[in-house]
Design goal:
With about 300 residues, this protein is of the alpha+beta class. It has eight helices and 15 strands.
């Protein structure tokens, strides 16, 4: 198990200069070349340790190639494609998230979510680059879901112990599709089931692991939890929605204002994020490399 230093400790003990942005989540790396980090073992090891500590890292002014973007992400592990968003044809795994007035309705991001929890193995993390930013607006918010779990009332922690939730691409990306395409998507990606409280595989931290892809609790309807039907539905749904709303609490958040060639690297296991869509009719173009994750437990 990795030991994580207190987040408010701003001392710099390595080659990378880091500036924490809040007391609970997020730090900016200063005077760093991500292309060099992608090919330097010692620098990458330091970056990875900082990611575990701060959960999301931000870096500005990185005019690097797409190949170096991919190389950096691949240091964490193999990259995944996305069944709905398009990828760069020359760099498999580099997903293009280009938003304008013609963007399909199902490509929304303005919901608190952890990427692709509809997969059996959700992404470990992501490396996201801003290619084109609107003059104003278009910020992204990240949330520390370790802190969200830690500060739950003890009776709630006891109530959700052992619960599991279903996560669905059909009910999210598929909802705006014609019924035949929606069913085809569901066949390719059957609903995944994950624990409501996940253990981080590297740090051992407990994580509140429900987000906007979660549709329902799958093992709440037991004699211990249910006396009458109202306890099961809407009782279970109300509990799930209460847990999902924890991501909206500002004390667990950091908000990043994008500039061209700025990057965010985040641990998808312990965070959620929300891309604020307040910039239309301006354009926002992002490119994301998602790293294949492991099983939840």
């Amino acid at each position: 198990m990795t030991t994580i230093a207190p987040l408010h400790d701003s001392a710099v003990r390595g080659a990378l200069r880091v500036e924490p942005l809040t007391c609970t989540i997020g730090a900016e790396l200063l005077d760093v070349d991500l292309a060099r980090v992608a090919h330097d073992d010692a620098l990458f090891a330091e970056l990875r340790a900082l990611l575990l500590k701060h959960k999301v890292l931000f870096i500005r002014d990185q005019d690097i190639s797409r190949a170096d973007h991919v190389a950096l992400a691949q240091r964490f592990g193999p990259l995944e494609d996305h069944p709905v968003a398009g990828s760069d044809p020359d760099n498999p795994g580099l997903v293009r998230i280009y938003k304008d007035l013609d963007s399909p309705a199902e490509h929304y991001e303005n919901a608190y979510h952890c990427d692709a929890t509809w997969r059996q193995h959700p992404p470990m993390g992501c490396v996201l680059r801003c290619v084109e930013t609107p003059p104003v607006g278009g910020d992204t918010i990240w949330v520390n879901m370790v802190e969200a779990y830690r500060r739950l009332p003890d009776p709630v922690k006891q109530r959700i112990q052992g619960l599991r939730a279903r996560h669905s691409i059909e009910a999210s990306f598929g909802a705006a599709m014609p019924i035949d395409k929606r069913h085809e998507l569901a066949q390719r990606f059957p609903d995944a089931e994950h624990p409501v409280v996940r253990t981080h595989p590297e740090t051992g931290e407990q994580i509140l692991f429900v987000n906007s892809f979660a549709t329902h609790l799958v093992n709440h309807h037991t004699p211990e939890n249910v006396r009458f039907g109202v306890d099961y539905a809407p009782g279970a749904a109300e509990l799930l929605h209460y847990l999902m709303r924890q991501a909206t609490i500002p004390e667990y958040q950091v908000r990043w204002r994008w500039t061209k060639n700025s990057f965010a690297i985040w641990d998808n296991r312990s965070t959620q994020h929300y891309a604020v869509q307040d910039y239309w009719p301006a354009v926002r173009k992002m490119e994301r490399a998602g790293i294949i994750g492991d099983a939840t437990f």
